[in-house]
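Narrative progress, year one. The postdoctoral researcher (J.K.) led the effort to move from monomer predictions toward full complexes, under supervision of the PI. The following entry was the first complex the group processed end to end, covering 230 residues in total.
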Amino acid sequence: MFRDCKDVVGPVRVGDKWTCRILRCLRDGDRRFSELRVPLSAITPKVLTESLRAMERDGLVRRTAHPGVPPKVVYSLTDLGRRLLEFMDTICDWTVTNLPEILEARRAYDERVSV
Amino acid sequence: MFRDCKDVVGPVRVGDKWTCRILRCLRDGDRRFSELRVPLSAITPKVLTESLRAMERDGLVRRTAHPGVPPKVVYSLTDLGRRLLEFMDTICDWTVTNLPEILEARRAYDERVSV
DNA sequence: CCGTATCCATGGGGATACTG
DNA sequence: CAGTATCCCCATGGATACGG
């Protein structure tokens, strides 16, 4: 449904594998780099860094580095990021609403071709 | 924004490169296989076939084969496909609305890092 | 702790040729 | 015309190790 919208959306870091999940992790407040890796357990630091950088650049998240040793960096949602998060919820609602019909179509299709 | 929703969406053929564009090509009426290739000029028959099959399976498009030689097959939107198409329009609306803010964020970011 | 640097695996999708 | 059949590229992103 959505990756195609990259063309419409153009440059927005939208439609990739991690953006939505990262936004969700930040829903309830700031998170540190390592705290983000926990719920996104499969993510490697490289990929997380890339994702966060791109999202920061697009104004979806804010990066705040607290000086000192050991370093401490927290990520938080911007207003734009929060609006996107909420909009993604409506997208998921659409899916939840329509999923039964999709699954039924698929069941019917599979039965037709298997015969 | 959206590819991640594949996880939410799960099995739905949504978030891939072609679904949205194909739906748009069918907006104004039925189209034949070769007619679809014109507006989707970059698409190869293999990819178009794969996309259409998956969309048919998910109940987004309907495939109607008219017997005879040469063969004639037309694709059309199902009700579900049309609802998805309309919903994609609202997604694009969100983007259009928010794109200026994103671009501005990006401009500011690039200036910051280039300094 | 918060990343970078390297290398590598995978699969989506493109190019091309062919068939019923 | 409406696809199949092959081959192949390459970007995304995973694994691992290391650095400030």
